[in-house]
Amino acid sequence: MRPLASLLILCLAGCAAAIRGPALSPAQRFGRCLKSSVDGDVFLSSEQPAAVHEEAQLWNRLYSNSTPVAFVRPATVDGVAAAVKCAYGAGVKVVPKCGGHSFMGYSARDGTLGIDLSRLNKVTVSADRRTARVQGGTKQGQLYYAVWKQAGNTTAVVGGTCPTVGVGGFLQGGGLGFFTSQFGLACDQLIGLQMIDYQGRLVTADQRQNSNLLRAACGGGGGNFGIVTEFHIRLVQVPPLLTTSQLRLAGNQTAVDFMLWFQSHVLNTASHKLAFDLRLSTTGKNVAQVQLNLRWPGREAEMRAALVALSLLGPSSPWAPVLNPKNTTFEAPWILTAVADDKSSVPKTNTPEDLLRYEEIWATRRYLKEKSYCSLEPLPAATWARLFQSLARSKSAILVHRMGPKTAFAQVAPSATAFPWRKALFCLQHLKYFDNPEEVASVIAGLKDAKDVLAPHMPGMPGYVNYIDQDISPNPLFSYYGANLGWLRQVKRQFDPEARFSTNPLSIPPAAPQ
Question: What residue range is the signal peptide (predicted)?
């Protein structure tokens, strides 16, 4: 009887195994985990490669060919946490995506789980209109529109100029924009956040708890420490109307002289209320030109008075005879200045709803390469002259973001947040769009040509991490984080010790155990 009983047990076990089927592979278990626990869309590369490929498309077409193992689009914060838990159990690294604007394509990576946060886009303005809670998948256009609808024309957001950029990446990278001189970086308005850590746990950070994480989230780069699902930000009060104006001047010597005046005079005397950014380029005849992009919180007459006091305009101005107005001076509520800031080719209705035309703006995406540097010292005349000559050769332009001692940006200590270059006079953004990927070698050569002009005056090549470039210098982590890298690595060790969110060459590594 015993041999017969043993044989019967073996038969039953074999039948049960046959019913269960073959053991699942790790990839299959991972896919099953996502499908059973994420409350939203789940796309597996093994089953829906076209859908995964579509999710991996980024603003920069040059880097839209990555192959994540899966992409999910959770409907709730719990769904984000569930996806991270599945990835942790499967040993798969995680990449959050909101706007997909990482210039190096780091919003989607080979072999990772991509988490598209776009369904988490709720914005709630407080009753006193002083703060807002912003979900981590919100895009800038959605944020601006929601704040305007809930708070009106005199409560604004410190943000950037592109409505399709994700708030998560923009804030965590610092956040440069037209309000930087008056109110500081966008992340300087950050007063709290909620984040999903590497094991899928919800972490709250504010001045009372996990304040080191809040500090790191201001300039420490999106996705380094976890997935932020909510930001708590300060809003700012502005007049009912803002004035925007563009002026320009041309001439090889005139442009160089103006840049010297900008460094010595504007940076040291202009009101912090005056947004004063520049676009450097050359004409079709290779003549240097400078476009002034100005904004003032108030009426046109007030702006003109400020520009006369600055000696940019008026009878005592050395520049009045050579300045050519572009006939674009206008007064508008802040929300319509945000509409005007969008430089996409999509035709505008000049209404706040233009900020929500994500699909139309996304359809205009192109190839691009860029480099960015923050200058801690004035540049000499010869360097400005050589820089304009380089721009003529590459047919490109450089944007100059005003900083300097008079701005709110400079009133924050370099170690108070992750952004280390608070003593910068200005940051340069050298960006080139193109339509044929075969042009990339010549574009890179043009960018390098300008970099070679600037490098002798910028030791370590200080940079702005939202304009990320893995070739910025031999030590990119120093370029973006400077002396703050040490404590940022400690924060990384606390919240992502296994480097589960380290998915690109410029991810902050965790500090070694002590």
Answer: 1-18
